[in-house]
């Protein structure tokens, strides 16, 4: 298993995941309660899978709460931003913890705009005739736009993200009329700006196949995608995934 699939954690990161003091984790590692090893510099390290197994044996240690805890542990944002003991207000599956860890490993969130991704969203908008196109990355608390055209916002709450459904579907996900869809009709992005009516998103995957986010197009009118338009969106998503894998 690669570092992308099962990232290495410091004692501090493991302590945040488990909700205990770093000294406690160090003691557990020294005693063998947590599988670990020492670096040449004498620092203890463990794998996410070792901590994940402990959390699975802990009340409330569902895949969703583990996923939120992973980002709290690995993110430079204060852990106070996260609420790991509450179920998220968006759909997830059992792979969410690994997906969030892979997103952190990518180091793409909160980075500067890049021409390679800006070109992709411009092309996605053009080939589908859509006013809005995004490269959207899904953290446990927000959807953050690595590239965007047709919209000013840099991010929205994760609970509002159509892209959560696209990542869960694992394939192209299309909503032809969000106002008529019970999953989305009350969504703030449908009721307010940008007044989404049409959405089509394709998962963006890392080299291990984990979906970090989506390439999506949005319209303010209900519509369908022609077969050629959908194929073009899939092809552009493949190119974006390849670019992400380059780092």
TrEMBL record:
Concerning InterPro entries, the annotation shows: DNA-bd_dom_put_sf, GAF, GAF-like_dom_sf, HTH_17, SinI_DNA-bd
SUPFAM superfamilies for this protein = GAF domain-like, Putative DNA-binding domain
CDD domains cross-referenced by the UniProt entry: HTH_MerR-trunc (cd04762)
Pfam families associated with the record: GAF, HTH_17
Question: Where are the coiled-coil regions?
Answer: none
Q: Which residues form the GAF domain?
A: 112-244
Q: Provide the protein name.
A: GAF domain-containing protein
């Amino acid at each position: 298993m690669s570092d992308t699939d099962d990232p290495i954690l410091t004692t501090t990161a493991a302590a945040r995941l488990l909700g205990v003091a770093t000294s406690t984790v160090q003691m557990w590692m020294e005693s063998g309660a947590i599988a670990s090893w020492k670096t040449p510099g004498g620092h203890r390290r463990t794998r996410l899978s070792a901590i994940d197994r402990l959390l699975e044996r802990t009340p409330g240690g569902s895949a969703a709460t583990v996923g939120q805890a992973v980002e709290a542990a690995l993110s430079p944002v204060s852990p106070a931003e996260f609420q790991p003991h509450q179920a998220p207000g968006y759909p997830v599956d059992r792979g969410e913890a690994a997906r969030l860890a892979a997103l952190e490993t990518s180091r793409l969130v909160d980075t500067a705009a890049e021409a390679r991704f800006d070109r992709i969203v411009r092309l996605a908008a053009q080939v589908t005739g859509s006013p809005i196109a995004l490269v959207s990355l899904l953290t446990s608390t927000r959807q953050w736009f690595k590239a965007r055209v047709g919209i000013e916002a840099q991010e929205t709450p994760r609970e509002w993200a159509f892209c959560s459904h696209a990542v869960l579907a694992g394939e192209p996900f299309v909503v032809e009329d969000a106002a008529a869809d019970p999953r989305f009709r009350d969504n703030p992005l449908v009721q307010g700006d940008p007044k989404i009516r049409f959405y089509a998103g394709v998962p963006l995957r890392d080299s291990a196949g984990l979906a970090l986010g989506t390439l999506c197009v949005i319209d303010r009118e209900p519509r369908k995608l022609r077969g050629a338009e959908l194929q073009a969106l899939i092809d552009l998503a493949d190119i974006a995934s390849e670019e992400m894998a380059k780092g």
